[in-house]
């Protein structure tokens, strides 16, 4: 009985962690592309280096949605190692959207930090 309660709690924590990762993935992608245009495998690599695991099956639909929302554009570039590569970059609308997300992130972060500090008092 105790074991099943622990497993349920672990599953709930994993679910919340997964939802949190999904919620910030778009923001993280926009942050990466704000630095410079990037090829999808480079975006995945950068996310993995930051300990955010994402697979192509998750990334490509998100990139397409962001492009269709006119937040991203892309440009084909020749590659010395195979076919041309699609490099994504932020549009002006994407930069504005990123700025709004940054404001929201800062507000949320400040709120959480305030709650954490109050909890320690």
From TrEMBL:
<dbReference type="Pfam" id="PF03551">
    <property type="entry name" value="PadR"/>
</dbReference>
<protein>
    <submittedName>
        <fullName>PadR family transcriptional regulator PadR</fullName>
    </submittedName>
</protein>
<dbReference type="InterPro" id="IPR052509">
    <property type="entry name" value="Metal_resp_DNA-bind_regulator"/>
</dbReference>
<dbReference type="InterPro" id="IPR036390">
    <property type="entry name" value="WH_DNA-bd_sf"/>
</dbReference>
<dbReference type="InterPro" id="IPR005149">
    <property type="entry name" value="Tscrpt_reg_PadR_N"/>
</dbReference>
<feature type="domain" description="Transcription regulator PadR N-terminal">
    <location>
        <begin position="29"/>
        <end position="99"/>
    </location>
</feature>
<dbReference type="InterPro" id="IPR036388">
    <property type="entry name" value="WH-like_DNA-bd_sf"/>
</dbReference>
């Amino acid at each position: 009985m105790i074991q099943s309660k622990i497993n349920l709690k672990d599953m709930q924590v994993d679910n919340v962690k997964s939802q949190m990762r999904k919620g910030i993935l778009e923001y993280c992608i926009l942050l990466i592309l704000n630095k410079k245009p990037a090829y999808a495998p480079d975006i995945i690599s950068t996310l993995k280096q930051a300990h955010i695991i994402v697979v192509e099956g998750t990334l490509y639909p998100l990139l397409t949605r962001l492009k269709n929302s006119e937040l991203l554009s892309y440009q084909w570039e020749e590659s010395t190692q195979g076919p041309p590569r699609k490099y994504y970059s932020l549009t002006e609308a994407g930069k504005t959207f990123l700025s709004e997300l940054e404001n929201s992130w800062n507000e949320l972060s400040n709120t959480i930090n305030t709650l954490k500090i109050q909890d320690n008092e």
